Amino acid sequence: MNRRAIAAIIRKDLTVVLQSKAVMIPIVIVPLVIFIFLPTVVGLAGPALINLPGGQEQFLARLPAGLRAALEGLSPTQQPVVLALVYLFAPLYLIVPLMVASVIAADSFAGEKERKTLEALIYSPVSDRDLFVAKLLSAWLPAVAAGLFGFVVYALASNLAAWGVMGRVFFPTWMWLVLVVWVMPAVAGMGLGVSVMVSSKVKSFQEAYQIGGVVVLPILLLVVGQIAGVMVFSVWLVLLLGLVLWGLTAILLWYGSRSFARSELIAQL
Amino acid sequence: MLEVADLVKHYGPVRAVDGISFSVKPGEVFGLLGHNGAGKTTTIRLLNGVLRPTSGTARVFGLCPINDGLTVRQRSGVLTETPSLEERLSARQNLRYYADLYGVEASQVPGRFEALLQTFELSEVGDGRVGGFSKGMKQRLALCRALLHQPELLYLDEPTAGLDPVAARRVIALIREQSRVGGRTVVICTHNLGEAEQICDRVAVLERGKLLAIGTPAELARAYQHSAKVLIEVAPETIEQALACARGFEGVEARAENGQLSLTGLSRQRIPELVAALVKLDVSVYRVEPQEASLEDVYFALHQRADQPPQAHPAPEVKA
Known about the structure:
Shape of chain B: elongated
Mean pLDDT of chain A: 87
Helix content of chain B: 25-40%
Structural class of chain A: mainly alpha
Order of helices and strands of chain A: HHHHHHHHHHHHHH
Radius of gyration of chain B: 24 Å
Distance between the termini of chain A: 26 Å
Strand content of chain A: under 5%
Order of helices and strands of chain B: EEEHEHEHHHEHEHEEHEHEEHEH
Strand order of the largest sheet of chain B: 5-6-7-3-8-9
Helix content of chain A: over 70%
Strand content of chain B: 25-35%
Structural class of chain B: alpha/beta
Distance between the termini of chain B: 14 Å
Oligomer: heterodimer
Low-confidence stretches of chain B: 311-320
Low-confidence stretches of chain A: none
Largest sheet of chain A: none
Radius of gyration of chain A: 21 Å
């Protein structure tokens, strides 16, 4: 494995990404909303803002037993805060690494085609495998870094903003730690896998980004599942979810790697 | 340095390269001439192991580009048709990136950057974003990149395409310097015939993936002399007589042009025969001026023949 070349490709891709407004705007705005704005608003004004359908008691009665038990020890003002920040927003958190991976991968794969910089790279003495690994890492590493950094920011924002209601450090929970360590990297990988596949069929960053955007749908289903109380995150569910996502990621990347041969890439130029 | 035997590449029903054979010696500047779609770029891709041939063989440095693609590409430099530079980065950042990809020794990187940027007159803009460069500057920077790892073999795909005459002349001079002074083997793809004539030791003419002819520009000019003009100045009062006489020679087209005969289709060997015939008719011959065929004449003659139905002309002789 040509580590120097891989590092160079990652460094170059990230430098280029940092200079692209089209890539950086969603990468900055969405995390600001999810990691800072939402926990701050819910933490400061949560009890007043969260108007649970059918009243708090009825809503809590419909929740799964495990979750009800988790909330039962809390005061009525604490319950909606914990419900939102710990449970309802957990799938939203996953949107950030997913989006960062998708956007950077779209720029890295389809963007190179669009900018006509791929041909010189193809003529370089870097193997197909190293090129593929470098391109994956250049999107996956920042996505995971964004996820980890976002988690820290979210934890700080949640605890600080909700201090008045909670009076203690209530975040993160074990479920969140599993989500961050096990599921979040898999979600980033899945976004990457979809982007790689889409990028091999399209010629511009925008096309890849827009088509690759469908990957956010399963996450939105998780959000709906949480709100509806159909599928509430627990440590075991999150472990299982991670397993499924890693499996999906592996399949997507395997297919993606098949279209990442020099001869295939150059034929698209 | 480079051996190609019966190389074929099909894209579905399209024969991009159709059984071409040639060799290039070390230190030679070899031109691949042809219209767009003639198969020049595909040939370069095949020689770099970027594409797998449908059939036939290619050996570069004695290696198979498919099996030893990394080594072949490590020892070769390619100037692609578009500069293929990252416009959001500076010239030095672009070079740094490729120095890492080609494994240029870290201690040699700064010295090489400066030497190349100086040679290609880009030192002052080395830290400027490539997006702000003119087309000529980008092409020179792309040449820097192709030479960064000091390749033994340099492929140049349309190196002056889209450049203004001044920038094109500058790039040609730099290429010539690389081959003459640097001793590099250069394969240049172009449809700019004047450029090929200036810098190529030998050229191969391609048409729809087929090799039409190969040789030095002078050899080709001689081989296709029939397409060149011969001007004959005769006494004005005998010009009609001279025209009639010339038209009697098989394959010769004759017309009066500025008071003299302008003949095409007359080979160099048949000039004495025509002059003797004119003298025999009492035509006063003052001057005979065979005009050497340029590479451009040869090129168009070859393409004209290639465009005709196959039975209309014999296959052109190909010199190895």
